[in-house]
Model the fold of this input.
Amino acid sequence: MGPRKFIVLVTLLAAAAIVGASAWAAALLHARRTLAPAEQAAAIGGPFELIDHNGVRVTDRDLRGRPTVMFFGFTSCPDVCPTTLIQIGQWLEALGSDADRLNVVFISVDPERDTPARLKAYLSAFDPRIRGLTGTPAQVAVAAKAFRIYYQKRPVEGSDYSVDHSSVTYLLDERGRFVEPIAYGTPPDRAVTQLRQVLAE
Ligand code: NI
Done:
């Protein structure tokens, strides 16, 4: 085979691999999206033990008694996490005093860098009702797995690493059971309606 034919062949193989991988990823996402609500509820959630930004131990049981807004992220995140935390603050603002009947937790998927002190400093820029949770890498892995959260370190030029992660916000009821997600980019009115519903249940 001449070099030109070889290049064409390699290009075709690479294209086929990309198409295959995208189809697989789309199928995976689609499978997640089409889970019936009852199946989702059964699949999302479980026991965990973490530590909050003040160094206090927090388990899934400690969140019971109030509905919970839960978001996984990390303090070095350049865009999605700060945007989401700002939006959560706006929802809480819109809820007024009803927001005080919610737990709002930001769970780090970067436990190696996100110490309680670092979480506390970071969260001081956002609504004070947002509680930061972190733990050992093993503890965070348990929590993320329970809530079906994907996260993966990725090397980045100019810094140590970034962390790719699921950017969905979860609503849990007062018994700690998954109710529904608030997708990234949900219009604020819609999100506040979702929160009011979970508060009314
Ligand atoms: Ni993020």
Notes: The helical segments are 3-33, 37-43, 80-95, 116-123, 137-146, 188-200. The longest strand covers residues 159-165. The CA atoms of residues 75 and 94 lie 25 Å apart.
